[in-house]
């Protein structure tokens, strides 16, 4: 027995050590499983450049969600009408740590680009709609065009000599310009940029004659006297530009276009994560200072349930498909 005692004691200690280690591992695993979401920063992809409407909205939300304990890191991934950044989102892990703020261009691209590397509806989980924003037709403050009628007359007199800038092929700014071209019965030339900021810079420099830009991006320059606003794309006048007529009022009958913005996650993101994000986004958009900021920029907060936004995207793809085709817009123009 004396030879076996050390063996028994050693084995008991070893078993106890193993049990304690197992218990610790289980406790650690349980702690990790119980870690509240989010426990590290969330990447918010903006598929357009700095100064774009999506960028401005993302940064407003980023600040307010950070105040609520959800840290968002905005990452601009511009190009191909927003499809480059959206493709990054589609391939990201469905863990709630990669999101994207997309625009109406997301639905437009489904028709405009025949070979997208993702399914516009099936590869994403909606979080919430964020805002609705009119576009406004702007020209350089020194431009000879004082009204929409002046612009259309000049374009009719010299077809193909007036250019319009956009935030990229497939963006709402592109489709807005194509609709002006179609409904105004003029031949104006599309010049795509990688973002609204770059496009507006060239409008103000006189390198391109006009742009139908989101009010959130254009209004500050209009107020500074660097751009002249000729007309808004919506059926009603924009609150931020009450003295600027709608394009329909200004001489383009039946013109109406409204751009929307919302947050997406990769398909398969856990529903409790989607719900938490939706709740916080809705809270942020209800804050008085956020609502006031959006209104001064011509935007209207339009929060929704995830389910409603999912349904809305599918309906927008269907609704905008014939508009895209009738406008003559394509990924090559």
Automatic annotation (TrEMBL):
Belongs to the UPF0065 (bug) family. Keywords: Receptor, Signal. InterPro entries: BUG (IPR005064), Bug_dom1 (IPR042100). Pfam families: TctC (PF03401). Residues 1-33 form the signal peptide. This is Tripartite-type tricarboxylate transporter receptor subunit TctC. PANTHER family: BLR1237 PROTEIN (PTHR42928:SF5), TRICARBOXYLATE-BINDING PROTEIN (PTHR42928).
């Amino acid at each position: 027995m004396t030879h076996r005692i050390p063996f028994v004691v050693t084995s008991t200690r070893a078993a106890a050590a193993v049990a304690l280690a197992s218990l610790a591992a289980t406790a650690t695993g349980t702690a990790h499983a119980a870690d509240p979401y989010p426990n590290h920063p969330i990447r918010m992809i903006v598929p357009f450049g700095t100064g774009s409407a999506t960028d401005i909205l993302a940064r407003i939300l980023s600040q307010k969600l950070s105040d609520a304990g959800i840290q968002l890191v905005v990452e601009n991934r511009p190009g191909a009408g927003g499809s480059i950044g959206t493709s990054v989102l589609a391939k990201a892990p469905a863990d709630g740590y990669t999101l994207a703020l997309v625009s109406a261009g997301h639905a437009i691209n489904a028709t405009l680009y025949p070979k997208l590397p993702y399914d516009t509806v099936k590869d994403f989980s909606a979080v919430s709609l964020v805002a609705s924003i009119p576009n406004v037709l702007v020209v350089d403050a020194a431009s000879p065009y004082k009204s929409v009628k002046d612009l259309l007359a000049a374009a009719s007199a010299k077809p193909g000599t007036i250019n319009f800038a956009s935030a990229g092929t497939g963006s709402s700014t592109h489709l807005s310009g194509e609709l002006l071209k179609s409904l105004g019965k003029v031949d104006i030339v599309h010049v795509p940029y990688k973002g609204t900021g770059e496009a507006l810079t060239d409008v103000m420099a006189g390198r391109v004659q006009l742009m139908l830009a989101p009010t959130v991006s254009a209004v500050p320059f209009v107020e500074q006297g660097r751009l002249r606003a000729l007309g808004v794309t919506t059926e009603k006048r924009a609150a931020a530009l009450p003295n600027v007529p709608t394009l329909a009022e200004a001489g383009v009958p039946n013109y109406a276009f409204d751009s929307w913005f919302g947050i997406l996650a990769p398909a398969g993101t856990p529903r409790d994560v989607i719900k938490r994000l939706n709740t916080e986004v809705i809270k942020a958009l209800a804050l008085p200072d956020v609502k006031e900021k959006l209104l001064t920029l011509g935007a209207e907060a339009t929060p929704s349930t995830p389910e409603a936004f999912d349904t809305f995207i599918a309906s927008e793809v269907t609704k905008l498909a014939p508009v895209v085709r009738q406008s003559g817009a394509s990924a090559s123009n």
